[in-house]
Amino acid sequence: MGSPDERQVDGLGGGHPLTSKVAVIAPSAVGPADVDYLFLQVVPDRALVTDAQTCGNLLAGVGPFAIERGLVPASGETTDVRIRVLNPTVSLANARVRTPGGRVRYDGRTVMAGTPFPAAPIDLTFPGDDRPVFPTGRLVDQFAGVQVTCVDAGMPVLLVRATDLGVDGAEPPEALEGDTALRSTVEAIRREAGPAMRLGDVRDMTVPKITIVSPPRLGGTVTTRTFIPHRVHAAIGVFGAVSVAAAVRAPGTVANPATPAGPEVRIEHPSGSFDVTVELDGDGAATRIRSSTVVRTARKLSDGLVWPRSV
């Protein structure tokens, strides 16, 4: 990927954590899954690769890849690909891929905020499990003097009210990244929260993320800005969005001034909005995810060989 080099000019990375990612796919020999998916986050400016988290946006490409590589046969107008996620916190996902005529279809009319062109939709569904989504056993904690909700519904996330950080919550990412005092506070919160979330010392980890929440501006449910954890996301990640949606729907969290009437949550982010459907079981600190569903897109960009630099 060209690290350690913040521009990654000697590799395939885009010089930003959002574009410095790798998916490793293999046939699965476990349970009902068709393929295994291991996500690797490559840090652009350091010689660091981590599997401590997964990535739902890259997950959207796993189904089409598995079909095109012959790991899963096309089965009609749509093909379901059952995916075992090897990274922590998420175990199974189902990707429904459009396959008219037995071939993956990439063109379509679904627009995903943050991407310039429409494509065919890919439905991603995640079954729930028995793990509570609030890993500290509380709906609200306090770290570095700030009230925080710790949630993990696929991605460990810390939710903080914008007003508690002295910001509006609708700033562009570059403004938040340029606020040295804010970044220092965010990192202090993150480091204190790590052990409480059973993640240990997180100073060299890419989790937990920090999501700043504030009232919606565009008719959605909540406005977000997410540190991932040091840069600010131009949108919001899939599993990060599911975690935010779970916290929004659970009464008593910092993200829940008013519970949505139904399971649909529209999350506003710097480049648009992201719709998440979340079904919950239980209540309070014992809340669990029954299921969650999102729609993503994927487009094939290239197919070839990559030649790494000789060491």
TrEMBL record:
Protein source organism: Phytohabitans rumicis
Keyword set includes Nucleotide-binding: no
Keyword NADP tagged: no
Keyword annotations from UniProtKB, A to Z: Isomerase
Similarity comment: Belongs to the PrpF family.
The name this protein goes by in its record: FldA protein
GO molecular function term, any single one: isomerase activity
Pfam families named among the record's database cross-references: PrpF
